[in-house]
Amino acid sequence: MVCLNPTTTHIDTHIDTHIDDHIDDHIDNYIDDHFDTLIDNHFDNHIDNHIDNHIDNYIDNHIDNHIDNHIDNYIDNYIDNHIYNHIDNYIDNYVVQKNGKTLVLV
User: Fold this and answer.
1) In the 8-state DSSP scheme, what is residue 100?
2) pTM of the full structure
3) Is 1 helix (H, G, I), strand (E, B) or coil?
């Protein structure tokens, strides 16, 4: 039968419990801190960039085009038709009738 040295057993137990736990805590904290930070910074930024790009592209493409189309349609329909109709009516009704002559535009 082998007699165990109580000091060696105590040191082994201390290493097993305290130091291993201490190292495990450091590793857990490192993993928690490092990877949480990595996840928070990298992946959140990656996702934010995708969302920002999607919003920017949507605004640039869809909304800007929608607004541009409204402005273009307004210019085409209102200014071209409405104002030119006023000019045409002015020429037809006022100038030609007032002068009593046929106006020829060249």
Assistant:
1) T
2) 0.27
3) coil
What pLDDT, in 10s, does the model give residues 47-63? 778 888 888 788 778 87
Q: Phi and psi (nearest 5°) for 100?
A: 70, 20
CA distance 9 to 17: 12
Beta-carbon contacts of 103 under 8 Å, excluding residues fewer than 6 positions away, are 91, 95, 96
Give how far Cα 16 sits from Cα of 2, 10, 26, 91, Å: 22, 10, 15, 104
Cα 22 from chain centre: 43
Q: How many CA atoms lie within 13 A of 59 on its CB side?
A: 5
Cα separation, 9 vs 14, whole angstroms: 8
Q: What is the pLDDT at residue 74?
A: 81
Separation in Å, CA 61 to CA 2, 49, 55: 83, 17, 10
